[in-house]
């Protein structure tokens, strides 16, 4: 049964303190103007926190910054399991790995919840220009694409954008391959991903409406490596299904140069992708149980699956490692937080947020959406956190300000506007659960995202430690405060920029 939403009296004292006698550094004593001074073991401030709680949060931060152990978790997952395509044998090994790792890290409770979905399989993939300028092309099938059912050869028609493809006359691409050559722009917050990923998601059906027999796109990535970026695509109902693949950025440039020469360019594709039926994987959940309100939860997590090209180090072994390590540090405090901290390794984010949707649906069916004090996900690589944002009731703003004050010494600023929930927590946020966002520097994230280059060498241990510090402080103080974060409107902002849905 869900909790009754309330705002507790802000003068309420804690029943106990977490770390009596822990000193508070001068930098940690700086609080927003809205805060009320408190002394250890006495009154709470406007954020519903006393000095002992803030001291414990500062200790979490400093311990994480000195070495959180997150890199070892990421190394273990990417080395012992490797690529983790949803629905494969590696998926099952990843679930077993996560369950064992939660237990090894000392979580109070560890359990699995089923997540069912259709399995997509890549198979072989080849492409080449044929004719006078014959040469191979480097590409990869998009997740969810059908295959070509043997070699398929057709003339290429190039478009600079999805809008240009949509504007093409009906039937104008009959028997041809549509090529959408839109380059993603690089930004720290990754907002160039949304327009580029729209092409990946919707392009095949838009091309099929014009009569095309296949779709090629420029990879959704900011690199110049000859490694293509995969990612999920969707077929619209009632529209013919055609194969869809992404060229590496250099190969997209090469194909465009050939088209620009004016003569017809023909490409041969041979893609063996297919969907193979249903599979049941699992969300893997570890909990640090709350001492006073164990049924109320703060959720943090990352997704356990990855695409099959790389080892999924930045997407999203890093998120799994960061949040597991944060939960472990909270569990090592002298006393558990008031509420439960729940860490989730979500199943099959890449093909459509299946783990997040299953988690939200299960809580909605049990009327437990209101149990969620805050939900957040780390799914934007291994870059450092630079901002804290949140979607909560106004009463929780002083808590977010306090969290920001504790995180300020490690370069994290509280921003009262903007942001949005992470991909796998967006389904439950859409049902009213308050969300938090720790915005990461993603300047180079899309150089490696969804490619064979997503490997452990892209992960900087010190950057992971800073992220663990941020997640541990946010989760702990949200779990410890006397302030109830309430609910949010059921139409929250879109998943945090970039719209990294998959």
UniProtKB/TrEMBL annotation:
Residues 283-467 form the Peptidase M28 domain. InterPro entries: CPQ (IPR039866), Peptidase_M28 (IPR007484). This is Carboxypeptidase Q. The keyword Metal-binding applies. It is found in: Endoplasmic reticulum; Golgi apparatus; Lysosome; Secreted. GO terms for molecular function: carboxypeptidase activity; metal ion binding; metallodipeptidase activity. The keyword Metal-binding applies. Homodimer. The monomeric form is inactive while the homodimer is active. Transmembrane segments: none annotated. GO terms for cellular component: extracellular region; lysosome. Keywords: Carboxypeptidase, Endoplasmic reticulum, Glycoprotein, Golgi apparatus, Hydrolase, Lysosome, Metal-binding, Metalloprotease, Protease, Secreted, Signal, Zinc, Zymogen. GO terms for biological process: proteolysis. It comes from Arenimonas composti TR7-09 = DSM 18010. SUPFAM superfamilies: Zn-dependent exopeptidases. Residues 1-25 form the signal peptide. It comes from the Bacteria.
